[in-house]
Fold this protein.
Amino acid sequence: MIIKKPADIKSDEITPESVYIDRRKFIGTSAIGLTAAALGSRGSKLLAQDDRQDDELTSFESITTHNNFYEFGTGKGDPSRNAHTLRPRPWTVTVEGAVENPGEYDLDDLLRPHTVQERIYRMRCVEAWSMVIPWQGVPLGDVIARLGPTANANYVEFVTLLDPIQMPGQRRRVIDWPYIEGLRMDEATHPLTILATGLYDRDLLNQNGAPLRLVIPWKYGFKGIKSIVAIRFVERQPINSWKALAPNEYGFFANVNPEVNHPRWSQARERRIGKFRKIRTLPFNGYGDEVAHMYAGMDPRTLY
Ligand SMILES: Nc1nc2c(c(=O)[nH]1)N[C@H]1C(S)=C(S)[C@@H](COP(=O)(O)O)O[C@H]1N2
Ligand SMILES: [Mo]
């Protein structure tokens, strides 16, 4: 597979947004967080009630040029400029820890038995911007079921590639590399959680976390770790990179919550990339019906 830079992609190679929206009308039930047009009655309720009618797909151009991927620099434009040094194939994922089938898996072997699905999800960054992205990927729960976690596997830890040659941003210690993230087992196996391999019907571009990244739509974007080389089944809660860096600003759970502000700014509203007006941020990023039960009895204010 040839991975091209966004500038080399002709617009007719990308599935246009209108085609996605039409397709959703047919696929219907598998759609999760989508355009008002495809939402039916829930969509019209959203339209009537508030400012959130613009759940329109973010353009391929914006999704691939406005990024956070500190391994390629800390500016939003840095990953799309610098990530050409990453070689996403061949790619090996190490599976280790409390699991029946540990080993070094070629990416294709890890994914082959599983069905790639399309999921249109909202992505909300801590920095109060958001996007609506048509992902392709496999449910992480399917992959985990085949790997066979043992009784001690309470959490799953994910690790990004560590290679300052391919990832020049790692020559500066902005983060204690490699980037690490983690999920509790029920979050990891929740049907909304996917391992993404593509978006807009194309393999992931490097800046979006090629060849494999996590997407957990009810959590802040930083939980969506990119370019994963290891999946570890562990007993204790992993120490994720952002929490290690600033524990008063970033937690382990990082559930989107408009009522818990970041110490330095409000989380009540967000700006969709490509739009001018700000919209209200929803609890659990709008996925509360599907996920809130996992946090029953926990203080939501501690779940930032
Ligand atoms: N390895 C790694 N994964 C990462 C990051 C990073 O810097 N390094 N940034 C995170 C943050 S803060 C966000 S908002 C999302 C951004 O994903 P996108 O650029 O594909 O929109 O990736 C997350 N995954
Ligand atoms: Mo983010």
Notes: The chain has one domain: 6-302. Residues 17-27 form the longest helix (11 residues). Residues 67-71, 123, 125, 160, 179, 208-209, 221-222, 224-227 surround MTE (ligand 1) (CB under 6 Å).
